[in-house]
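Hi L.,

You mentioned the student needs an example of a multi-chain input paired with its predicted structure. This one should do, with 1274 residues in total across all chains.
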Amino acid sequence: MAAGQFNSSASLSQNLEENLRVLREALGSSSDVIVRDMKISSDSNVDAAVIYIDGLVDRALLNHDILRPLMFNLQLIKDNLSHNHKSLIDYIKSSVLTVGQITVVQDIDRVIARVLTGHTAILAEGATRALLIDAKGWETRRIEEPKNELSIRGSKESFTETLRTNTALLRRKIRDPRLTFESLQIGEQSKTDVSIAYVKGITPENLIEEINQRLQRIDTDIILDVSYLEQFIEDSPSSLFPTVGSSERPDVVAARILEGRAAILVDGSPMALVVPFLFIEGFQNPDDYYARPFFAALVRWVRLLGYLLSIYLPGIFVSLKTFHPELFPTQLLVSVAAAREGLPLPVVLEALLMLLLFEILREAGLRMPRSLGQAVSIVGALVIGQAAVSAGLVGAPMVIVIATTAIASFLVIPFAEPGALYRFIMTLAGGLLGLFGIVLVSIEMLSHLASLRSLGVAYLSPVTPLNIRGLRDTFIRAPLWAMDSRPASLDSPNTRRQSSGQMPRPPKSSSQQGDTQ
Amino acid sequence: MKGKQGFVLILLIIIPVFISGCWDSIELNKLSIISGLGWDVDADTGQVTLTFQSIIPSETKGAAGSSGDGGQKRGNPLHTIQLDSSTGSSAYDALNRYSQHSSRRTFYQHTQLYILGRSAAEQGIYPFLDSIARNPINRPNVLMVVSEKKARDILSIQDGMESIQAMGMAAEIKLSAEYSQYPVVTYLEFAQRLLSETTAPLAPMVGIIEQAGPEGVRVKKTRINGTAVFKGDKMIGHLNEEESRGLLWAINKIKKGFVIIPGANLEIVTAKSKIIPELQDEKIKITIAIDEESNLLEYDGHREISSDLLQDLEKGQAREIERQVMAAVEKSQALNADVFGFGDTVHRKYKKEWPVLKARWEDIYPYIEVVVKVKTHVNEIGEINKALMRD
Amino acid sequence: MSLENGKISSFQLSVLIIGFIFGASVIIAPGQGAGHDAWMAIALGLTEGLLIAWIFTALARHFKGKTLVEINSLVYGKILGNFISVLFIWYLFHLGALVLNNYSRFLELELYPATPKTLTLILIMLVCASSVRRGIEVLARCSLILVTLTILMAIFDTLLVVPHMDLHNLLPILDIPIGKLLWTSHATAIFPFGDAVAFLMVLAFVNKPEKGRSAVFKGVLIAGLVLIGVAVRNAAVLGQMNAIYTYPTYITAQVIDVGDVLTRVEVLVAINLITMGFFKISVAYYGAVLGLAQVFNLRSYRPIILPIGILMVILALTNVSNTAEMFDFANNGYPIYTIPFQIAIPLITLLVAKLRKLPQIGGDQA
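Structure written out for the whole complex:
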């Protein structure tokens, strides 16, 4: 047993002092552990104690709805005791305290554990059970705009670090009684609350079982963030591409749950995981659904092509310049060759250096304190780029290529990291082996993607294995009234989503007046 | 164990790649991009002289040079190309000698033209053709051109308007084909004709003229002035402007252009032609059927623009077209070179009889009866519909 | 004893077959011996190819869910069956090496004259090995995307080249002696269509085995039609040079020149070649590796993937000494050499199975 663990079969003793001694030993003498002694019977011979951790409890509630009823109802309690109607603890629970969530426990370690999560414990002399009251309240960030997944038309709420707030946000989107939150605690030291959110009957049973299995297998000390969980439960840890999706928006998560997926929420993390995650989801964006279908389809294509561009462009450019100048149209070649005169570095190195420079700028811009961030990125990009070209270190076409690539790389956020890596690999392959190298690496990448599964679902569906119905939401965004069924790849038991034939039409019976008036 | 094996394997592959360098990689600024290739053969010695026109990219930077700093390096349009030649006993010999002495690798994939010197063409260009076909760096779209005298002369002319002379000439040739004056012949087309064994390969001919340029300086320019006719791989004659026109009418290569008849000038809208062979008791008769539509551009006469006038114009056009075609036919029969591809059309229609005919094609060709049937139609008459001055 | 747990759908099977047939057809232009009648040779070859497909799918239907190696063991008994299987495996292995060879020579000629063939071969082989290792399901999934791309590029090429096409180049029809036409069409029947017999190692994994035959037919037919179209296009553009150029499809693409900007499209052809070549080699590779594993009762075919791959590379390097020999073998030797494998083995095995009145096996047996 690790230090700090206690015998889980220890129950509370009747002696309050004994209990308090055990508790003090376990919790230590930190200044935020508060033990409030009191007398709760009018003849002042029943000792009790309220134990909580300052900072984790809602003080107002504690004072008003726990301490006050306990202390003001001394006569009632005494009367109850003397008439022996119920045990003290039951009586307090049923008639004294004016709070919502109360649990009765017998084990000391549960008391300790719960107090540590923000519950308030009440122990009394002579009682072998304790009361645990959920009176949590601490400083938390309020619900703000999502930082990374901005939507123009949709809601601007995002998850916060408190699990309960997040589950509430989901509840507000899905008011079906079958919405279920299964809770677990993971992490030896962190005992982080984890919730699996799904809708019974829409999310397949075996998915939930599988998630449960994987979560319960985790044996680690701390779960700081939802991405820790991701790394423990994902299907292909060695793959560059994520097989677990995440989002900080409740509307996105709600929509995904209703497609037949499950979400995992972690206390302390403003992101939710969503599984299974398919490749195509990286190109989907909540705004697609709020905008008009044709435009959404266009935007999706722009994303796809832009993403491919961001991976391939430097590699292709390098390979053309190095191995296949015959593939440039003649005039273009002359311009490019002219720009290349007098440059010292081989094209591959030039490209790799520029890519590296871009990554440095990007990362620095992220970590830099806000006030400096703008200056650095602008200065870095413009000045360094311009100066490098003028000094004859780097060719102007190369700067254009890298700049375009850089911007395009932000089109698809979930795949930005694998994209960056593959970009490097492609550039290297292009520089070493020309187009042949690029094609080989592409085939390998495709083959790799084709072999990935996300909790049982093939990563590349619905493209391959081909599922025509599923294609409605991939390269195009079929109008909402046409999306009659849930994505087939997700294997939901209930695929009918809405009734068909809901295309809006003007009313049949139009008035005789027509356009006059 | 497995992982380690894989790792070693990957190392084994990556390391040689890095150590030995990239065999095929090229640095752009170490390339000499050849825009035009000229082939001359010395009649006496048989030595082959290859002329290379290569592009100097930095000189082509015009107004779109680097921005910002003061000292802009503007390209000089007259110095964008560089001419070199090299002599050897064969094409590849000359090529190799050139590569040996050049500071850059020669890069032929952007060659726009192959120019054949006249004497070389007359001697037979087969060695040149073969080396081009075999070597993958050559593309089928490259234009074939014959020079009136020496190929080198043509390649050295820099006319200032086009920064890269060979591209300019290629554009000029294509434009002349657009205006239906001279054919444009790519390497592929030349080779196809050569393969056919009866059809005569062609190539436009380019000569040099002098003109008064800016500031009174005499400037040399290139001008297309004929169509070279080959028999096999040897040039045996040429068609002049009118004959070339006639040829284009017959082989359905008329696009835009003009028909000039006494008193009027018409612009061709569309033209189609069909070559229809007939075989009767071993005598071949070819009918060239031409269908043309045109618009009236210029009218010198003072008659009313009536449908009678248009009919007369149409007849005049038909006569003129027929005249041009027959001129071409006569010249080709005189040269005994089947520039029209009559042989191929007979082959396609009379498959069985063809082998016999093919063997005797040399004898048959000059005596083929050719009939030209022209149908013309004038569509538009322009913006005015009456003459400005009346008779 | 399942060496392969994956299942593929009949649609995926068709697509795999199309990719497989396209395999080396970009390089060794089918029907080239027939000049501008190549399209006719392909059409005839397609018919014969469908016949071959009929035979081997009949065998597969009789023993649903079993690969050829397993079938041979059932029909001929372990020893003789394994012997015949090993012969067939050799055929697949050889096929893989042949395609590797074609492939590397093309690359060497058109794109990379100075790079040593060994390196390109090893790299191709490694990519194929990695996909083979992932199993037939992954190959099938990749196939859809790659084949679609290839067909799109072929259509694109064809559309762009329309101004250069002269359908008169296709006349006169039947310009070559009938004997030569028949020989060329037989050559086309066995390469590329007949090679589909390699799928006797793959048909076992189709999830609805009764659809296997129609899937194979669909694949062969579609591939054949596309190839005919390509042959027509090449002949129309290149005329008589079609028969002379070593790689006509590549040259046809070089002709494309739209407004001086959209040129050099031949790189797309090279990409097509690389991706489809990858397919053909991978499927043959897969069949050989799986077959060997079944013959020797191995638990998994993974350990032998790399050794077989290296051997294939070696064979590809030493197979022929120059390109002329390669074409000669492809056009003259291969048509005869493959008869035992493509026709004889499936046919005889089927007959023996019927004679022995072996029961039909429907569905999978563990």
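You could point out the following to them. The interface with chain A takes residues 9, 11-12, 107, 111-112, 115, 120, 123-124, 127, 130-131, 134-135, 137-146, 260-261, 263-264, 267, 270-271, 274-275, 278 of chain C (CB under 8 Å). Residues 78-111 of chain C form the longest helix (34 residues).

Best wishes,
N.
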